[in-house]
Write a structure and sequence with these properties.
2 helices, mainly alpha, rod-shaped
């Protein structure tokens, strides 16, 4: 019975991780679209425009690191799910 509870918790955790991954991917897509869009600033070489681009790049880099860490946790969770699933089938 404990294995089934652990399995249910892992499945719920997997769903949360996938939701978080989708959220990060959506934000990264928004940042990429903002970078690809032509600047609305009439002078894109101003200090403010440059600072905004740098801030977006830093935010994007931070999100990429968060995404990489999330993928590691997701892989570990999936590995544990496979182990739980195998033990459920054995019992």
């Amino acid at each position: 019975m404990e294995t089934l509870i652990n399995l249910a918790e892992r499945v719920a955790r997997r769903r949360e991780l996938l939701d978080d991954l989708a959220e990060i991917d959506a934000i990264l897509a928004e940042l990429a679209a903002a970078d690809a869009a032509p600047d609305s600033d009439p002078d894109p070489d101003t200090e403010a425009a440059t600072e905004a681009r740098v801030a977006r790049a830093e935010h994007s880099a931070w999100l990429q690191r968060q995404r990489a860490g999330l993928l590691v946790v997701l892989a570990e969770n999936d590995r544990a799910l496979l182990a739980c699933g195998a033990s459920v089938w054995e019992s």
